[in-house]
């Protein structure tokens, strides 16, 4: 499979590239600066300068892009608009690495993790930006997308277990946790 990983120098991006290379996929890192991932193919470009030609020929484009300051948080949604322009109507799968704050804590899907009283205040702005990003994706009917929420305590260089929980949009923990830290 031919994959493009945007923000391949970041924590999630590097982990995605490493696993994809290990599994034999053909991976292109899209980075703003010198490539620090295991990808052999590189596009050195800011994501907001990408063109349709840059993303042509990939089976999947994975965005591990993150913005963390109050001034840059709106870039999450801005990036979705860009990828919609570049990938809508194509067969290319678009995957976004989001956050667990956008997950629901109830089966009726009325309360998100970020809306709970125990959600850490210092992460609420980021979680809200990522939830907005997901809401925007939901309006993109011509984009073949998926939004992936890593574990609430995602540790990219942590021990690899090979076990994953696929839980849809409901916040879930493994057998070792009763609740998030």
Automatic annotation (TrEMBL):
SUPFAM superfamilies in the record: NAD(P)-binding Rossmann-fold domains
Record Gene3D superfamilies: NAD(P)-binding Rossmann-like Domain
Ranges for domain NAD(P)-binding: 8-166
Molecular function terms from GO: oxidoreductase activity, acting on the CH-NH group of donors, NAD or NADP as acceptor
PANTHER family: FLAVIN REDUCTASE (NADPH)
Descriptive protein name: YwnB
């Amino acid at each position: 499979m031919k994959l493009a990983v945007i923000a391949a120098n970041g924590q999630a991006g590097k982990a995605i590239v490493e696993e994809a290379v290990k599994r034999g996929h053909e991976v292109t890192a899209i980075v703003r600066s010198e490539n620090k991932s295991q990808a052999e193919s590189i596009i050195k470009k800011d994501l907001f300068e990408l063109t349709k030609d840059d993303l042509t020929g990939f089976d999947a484009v994975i965005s591990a892009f993150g913005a963390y300051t109050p001034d840059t948080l709106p870039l999450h949604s801005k990036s979705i608009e860009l990828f919609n322009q570049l990938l809508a109507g194509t067969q290319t799968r678009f995957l976004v690495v989001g956050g667990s704050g956008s997950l629901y804590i109830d089966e009726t899907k009325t309360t998100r993790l970020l809306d709970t009283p125990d959600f850490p205040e210092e992460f609420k702005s980021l979680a809200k930006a990522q939830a907005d990003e997901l809401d925007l994706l939901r309006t993109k009917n011509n984009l073949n997308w998926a939004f992936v929420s890593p574990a609430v305590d995602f540790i990219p260089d942590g021990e690899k277990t090979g076990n994953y929980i696929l839980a849809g949009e409901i916040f879930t923990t493994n057998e070792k946790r009763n609740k998030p830290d």
